Amino acid sequence: MLADKRILLIIGGGIAAYKSLELIRLLRGQGASVVPVLTRAGAEFVTPLSVAALAGAPVHQDLFDLTTESEMGHIQLSRAADLVVVAPCTADLMARMSRGHADDLASTLLMATDKPVLIAPAMNVHMWSHPATQRNLATLIADGVAVTGPDTGDMACGEHGPGRMSEPGAILAAIEAALTSGPLTGKHVLVTSGPTHEPIDPVRYIANRSSGAQGTALAAALRDLGARVSFVTGPASVAPPYGVEVFRVETARQMLDAVTAALPADAAIFAAAVADWRVQSAATQKMKKQPGVLPALHFSENPDILATVSQGAQRPALVVGFAAETRDVVEHAQAKRTRKGCDWIVANDVSPETGIMGGQDNAVHLITANGVEDWPRMSKIDVAQRLARRIADALEAPA
Ligand code: C5P
Fold this sequence. Notes:
Blueprint: E1 6-11, H1 17-29, E2 33-38, H2 48-55, H3 73-79, E3 83-89, H4 91-99, H5 105-112, E4 117-121, H6 125-129, H7 131-142, E5 146-147, E6 151-154, E7 160-164, H8 168-179, E8 188-193, E9 198-199, E10 205-206, H9 213-224, E11 228-233, E12 245-248, H10 252-262, E13 267-270, E14 277-279, E15 299-301, H11 305-310, E16 318-325, H12 329-340, E17 344-349, E18 361-362, E19 364-368, E20 371-374, E21 378-379, H13 380-396
Helix pairs in contact: 1-2, 1-8, 3-5, 4-7, 9-13
This protein binds cytidine-5'-monophosphate.
């Protein structure tokens, strides 16, 4: 799979560095060559000797030790690779990368490279969830850095949660994906996901049961086919996928603004469960309970984001809507396709007995100009992968 590929592997200073030794072995087993770089902190966890022995190549450690530094050795080292991988990528390395530091060999290589970069973060759970790290992560993703992991589980420090470095096999898969261009490489796809929250007052809101699972799986599947994904999400209960640009919103109107700002796109997939109505003039102070007095809520209609984009000047070549129905699923969805002006509708029955809303599975009908396809019940991830492939086919050969 990776024959003749050259991986510049930067090993940062974390206990997970031991897993990078296994990663080197796996990479070489796939035919890749590994040029290892060990940071000063990395060398506290694994020895240069083990790294060099497994890589079958000398370890680079110091900016000014490169024998050819007079010939700009660090530039050459960073450019000769097909992919730069940072594993483990510590909180400190992420911070330095996001700010563009270049004061040691690893950071200088990362600044000088013109090749794609993949990081495998590894750190304590609180360090990972710290707003500073999450800010740095968002910056790195926006800069085009690919991210694999971290995993959730028991940590060497005795805590539990997200922060464990991905297993070597998963990093290998991410390396293969980063080096393979997919059918959506070069395409920009917009995905909306999750519910919206429509405020009643500063503490109360109207919501729905959407978990965001289907939209999230779809964004990940599109990313895996090489697309650049803009992911506009309401307050979902599942975390957004890695490797996509995330725009968090709460209300339908904010979602429309975020969608409009993210255009133009080659395709837009509207998987969000957007509230149809919002409370007219939501109270700015918490509404107080008064004995015997029940508040009356008056509603206004929310903008229909799917219809607005389908009929707008910046309409993507392919627009896909979702239709969650509890009866006459296909009939309603067919009417919706025409009314809203989108190309496809993915329709599903969300009656409580189906267990689809908030569940793992989905059973959908794909409604296009050519008719209706009934897909068998399958996991939301499988639905997403199948739909992503169809989207790739449609963008390759527009109808
Ligand atoms: O009209 P209905 O809500 O059934 O249509 C569902 C489709 O329309 C979904 O794709 C949903 O994301 C989108 N939608 C929207 N804006 C709304 C309501 C629904 O984009 N205000």
